[in-house]
Amino acid sequence: MNPPAPGSAFVSVPIRSGTVPCVLGPPPDQAAVAVDLLTPIDHPVGVVQSFVAGLCGRDSQLIQPIELAFVLDAAAVPPSEVIPFSAVLATLSANASARTRLPVPPGFALARQVFAGQERLAPLLYCRKRNRIFAACSPGTCVELMAVPADAWDDADQSAAQSPPPELLIWDGPAAEGQKATIYGGVGESCPLGRIEPLGQLLLDQGHVVRRAVKLAKSDPVAANKLAAQHACCACPERKRCYPEDSGYAYALDRLVVINTADLPLVVLPLGEWRLDEAARMMGGVASVDVPTAQKSAANAVELWRQQQAKAIAAAGPARLLAGETSGRELLEIARLKLALIADALTQLDAAWQATGRPHLCWNDHTIRVTWQQPASTPATCWGFQPLLRKVGLQPPAPEATPDDRPLVYPPAFSVESLLSPAVLEGLRHFGQSRPAMVYVKSLKPSGADAARVNVLIEDFGIGWQVICPGDVLKIDGPGWEALLVPADQRDPDDGEGLPFVGQVTGQITAFEAGGQFDGCTCRWLPRFGEAVDLNALGMLLFETLLGQDERAGARLREVVATERAELTQACLAVEPEQREGQASEWIAARCESDSPGAVWSRRNLLYNREARAAIPLDPLPAELWRAVIAYGFRLATAIPGFSYCDARDRAAPRTTAGQLLPLVELRGLIALLDDLIFGRAVPGATLLNTLRAGS
Fold first, then answer.
1. Which three-class secondary structure state does DSSP give residue 11?
2. Stretch 173-183: mean pLDDT, rounded?
3. Regarding predicted confidence, which is higher, 86 or 673?
4. For residue 309, how far is the Cα from the chain centroid?
C-alpha cells in the first residue's frame, strides 16, 4: 500500500489485502480544517463508537466518505454514558444476522471490499498524539495479535459460559504447555479459554513490546528496527511517559485507543453528502452548489467532495420539476419531494424495527443524511436524493429483569432533546435513578415460602402518575426483601396520592401483610421506550423539513414547534377522548389559515427564500390538503390519546391487519394526492381529496 501523499489529510489503516486503501484523517496540524479523526459524530453508544472515515485512491484523493463503527473499551467511556460491554456483546451475538437484513445503502459493497480480506486483521491501535495507526502486538512474543481461531475455541470446554462471543475477542496464543492464553476484550468475564482481560490491560501490556525492542537494540539491531517499524511505540520519543520503568501510571491509557477488535467493523456506511435539512433547503430555494458555502464549511477534503456532488446535482436535475412555473405549483412539487424524503426515511426505520426488534433511539442532526444518486427519468423523481438512516438499533437491551421477561431498552440518552416529546424526556432523566419512597401494602397472595404476589401503593415518590406507562418497571429494595412491579391497570380514586403497582416480592416476606407500611424504601423507576419515541422524533424532523426557511430554521424552529405542540396537547386533553380528533382539527385549521409574515403553519414556508415566499400564490395547494399534512405531522410528534398514532412513549407503531405500518400508508396517500394535483390526474386521488373536504 502506498502511503498518503505529503500533506494529505489522511493516514493509512494497515490492511494486508485488498486494493483500495481505507484512510482516516487528519494530521494534527489540519485537525481544524479536515475530517475529524476519531471524533465521534455524536455521543458514544456504549462500546460501539462511530467515526468519520473515507475511502481513498492510491493518490490519497477522497473517493467516498464513510462512517465506521468500532468496538471500544467500555472503561474509556464516561460512566454517565456507558452501556455495559457485556450487554452490547450479548446483543450482537444474539442478533448476528440482523445487520444482513437491514437495507443496504449505496457504497456499502465498496467499503466492504476494504475489510473483507482473506486474512484476519490484528487489533489496531490509534495514537492521538502522533496521529498514527498501527497493529497491537503480543506482550510475550511481539508478533501481531489475532482473533481467537475457530479450532482453539472448538477444543475448549463448551459447557463454560461463552460470553462475549469469540469473534470479538483478541487472543494472545497459543500459550505454553500447562498455561492458558491471554484473552482481551471484556471486563473481567470468563470464557472457555480463560479469563478475559479488559482492553485497557491490552494497552498497558504493549509496554512489554516496547521493553523488548529496547533490549533487542543492543543484541539484534536488525530485529529491533523491524519491530520498531511495525509497532509505533517502540521508536516513540515519549515511550517512557506511556510505559514508565517503575510500572506506575501509564500515559498510554489516555493516549492510545483500540479502534477494532474484530476482522470487520460492526458498521461500514457511506457518509451521506447532505443532512436532511440541507436537502430540503435545496428543494426549497437554495441552489445545491451554494449549500456548502452557506454552511460556511471549512475547505477540507469532505467539503470539496460535497461541492463536486453539488455540481453534479445542478447539472443532472432542474431547479424545479416544472421549470418556469409561476402559478404556485412549485408548492406542490416541493411539498411532494419533502414528504417523499420523510417517507423513504420511515420505510428504512420500519425495516430497522423489524430487523432489530427494538426502537432506534438515537436522534440528532446527523441521524438522517441524504445521499445523491443519478435521478430517474420520470418527472416526479427527477431529484436524486435518497435518505440514509444511520445508527439503526445499535442500543442494546438494559440488563434489567422485568416481570414479563420482555427486555427493556436503554433510554434515548444520545438524542437531541428538542426532537423528543416531554414524556420521553421525563423518562430519560429518571431512568434507573434511586429515590426513597413509602410502600403501603394493599394486598398480597403468597406464592412460596419467600415470595408473594402483591398490590401496593407508592407514596412520596416524586414522579407523577401521568408520566408512567403500562410497560414501565419499578424495582424496590426494602428491609430484607425486594420487589419487581409494574403499574396497575387502573388507579382507584380512593387511593389518594398513592401510585398503584402490582407484581412479585421476594425475600423476607413475613413482615408483609395487608395494611403494612415501609418507609424510606429505595425505588428505581425503569421507563419503557418503544417505537413511539422514533415517531415523535421523525414528526419533528418532518416539520423541520417542511417549514424550515431562511428566517426560521434548526433549533429556533424546533423551539416554536415544541411550544405549539404543547398548546395542541393541552387543548386536546381538556376535552373527552372522543372529541379530541375534532378539537385538533379545529386547532390546526385556525393556525393554517393564518398567512401573516410570522405565521409558522403557512404553506408559504415550503419555500426557503423570503422573496419567493412573499410572491407565491397559495391556491394550487388546497388548504384542506395542507391541513391534512400538518395534522399528519402532529399525529407523529404528539402522544394524545384519541388523536396521535401512539398515545404513550412505550407504544409500538400502529399497523394494519396486514402488518403494514399505518403512518407510512397514510403518508404515501398524501403523496399520491400531491401527485394527482401535479400531473392533473382525476383518480384515485379525487376520492381521498373529497374525503378530506368532508372532514374539514
1. strand
2. 70
3. 673
4. 26
Lowest mean pLDDT among 19-33, 54-68, 488-502: 19-33
Name the nearest CA neighbour of 243 among 256, 257, 261. 256
Question: Can you tell me the distance from the alpha carbon of 77 to that of 74, in angstroms, rounded to the nearest whole number?
Answer: 6
Residue-level pLDDT at 233:
93
For 363-378, the three-class secondary structure string (H helix, E strand, C coil) is: CCCCCEEEEECCCCCC
Residue with cell 494534527: 28
| Contacting residues for 195 by C-beta, under 8 A, at least 6 apart | 180, 183, 188, 189
Q: Within a 10 A sphere around the Cβ of 324, how many other Cβ atoms?
A: 8
Name the grid cell of 194.
480463560
Q: Could you tell me the CA-to-CA distances from 131 to 37, 91, 124, 127, 684 in Å, in that order?
A: 9, 32, 13, 6, 60
Q: Is the pLDDT of residue 364 over 70?
A: yes
Average pLDDT on 15-44 reads: 41
Structure confidence at residue 64 as a pLDDT band (50, 70, 90): confident
Considering only CA atoms, give the Rg of the chain: 29
Question: Residue 313: enclosing H or E segment and its boundaries?
Answer: helix 301-316
DSSP tally for the chain: helices H, then strands E: 20, 24
Residue-wise pLDDT tens digits, 444-496: 898 888 899 999 999 998 898 989 999 999 999 988 899 999 999 989 888 88
**Calpha distance 377→191 (Å, rounded):** 57
Query: Lowest mean pLDDT: which of 169-178, 274-283, 501-510?
Result: 169-178
Is 10 exposed, middle or buried, given 0-12, 13-18 or 19+ CB atoms closer than 10 A?
Answer: buried
- Output phi, psi for 238, to 5 deg: -105, 20
d(CA 441, CA 201): 49
C-alpha cell of residue 644: 396521535
Q: Find out whether 223 and 206 touch, Cβ atoms under 8 Å.
A: no
Distance CA 239, CA 251 (A): 9
Give the closest residue to 199 by CA, choosing from 74, 69, 87, 14. Answer: 74
Mean pLDDT of the chain: 77
The sheet carrying 274-275 orders its strands as 274-275, 368-372, 385-389
The answer to whether 72 and 257 are in contact (CB under 8 A) is: yes
Residue the block writes with cell 492510491: 58
Q: Record the cell numbers describing residue 653, joined without a space.
A: 407503531
Placement of cell 397472595 in the chain:
445
DSSP letter at 527 equals: -
User: Rounded mean pLDDT of 46-72?
Assistant: 60
- CA torsion sign, 531 to 534 to 536 to 542? negative
Say what the pTM is: 0.78
Q: Residue 617's beta-bridge partner residues?
A: none
List the end-to-end C-alpha distance of the chain, in Å, as a whole number.
66
| Structure-block grid coordinates of residue 615 | 410572491
3-state SS class at 473: strand
